[in-house]
């Protein structure tokens, strides 16, 4: 049974911040500072590059690990993205394969344009 099943994460306000807080609380027993290649994960990300549009709440399939961070397929963007360690706003929450569909059905992506 999925940890996300039965949770009211897709809240009535559809506020991505509230939904992400609920997701992090539900997945709190899975936190890791560094994901492994092949893992699925979600986390809070605060990009610093000016003029760059990014997803503050990515859902990612990790494809590569580097000294500066990692690369993965962002399911919200449907394309690969790079994530630097210094721009992670906390822990990485590991998502099981059977939880992907449930998370993809929750509109918690938060797209931001850095100024």
Question: How would you describe this structure to a colleague?
Answer:
With 115 residues, this protein is an alpha+beta fold. It has one domain. Helices cover 14% and strands 30% of the residues. It has helices at residues 16-26, 100-104; strands at 31-32, 40-42, 53-55, 59-65, 69-74, 79-84, 92-95, 111-113. The longest helix is centred in the first third of the chain and has 11 residues, at 16-26. The mean pLDDT is 91.
Number of helices: 2
What's the helix-strand series?
HEEEEEEEHE
Report mean pLDDT, rounded to a whole number. 91
Any low-confidence stretches, pLDDT <50, length ≥5? none
Number of strands: 8
The tally of structural domains comes to 1
How much β-strand is present in the residues?
25-35%
Main sheet characteristics: 6 strands, antiparallel
Silhouette: globular
Q: Pairing-aware structural class of the strands and helices?
A: alpha+beta
First and last CA, distance: 42 Å
Order of strands, widest sheet: 1-7-2-4-5-6
The whole-angstrom Rg is 13 Å
Determine the fraction of residues in helical runs and give it as a percent range.
10-25%
How are the secondary structure elements laid out?
Elements: H1 16-26, E1 31-32, E2 40-42, E3 53-55, E4 59-65, E5 69-74, E6 79-84, E7 92-95, H2 100-104, E8 111-113
Antiparallel strand pairs: 1-7, 2-4, 2-7, 3-8, 4-5, 5-6
Summarize it.
The chain is of the alpha+beta class and 115 residues long. Helices cover 14% and strands 30% of the residues. The protein has two helices and eight strands.
Features:
alpha+beta, 6-stranded antiparallel beta sheet, two-stranded antiparallel sheet, 8 strands, 30% strand, globular
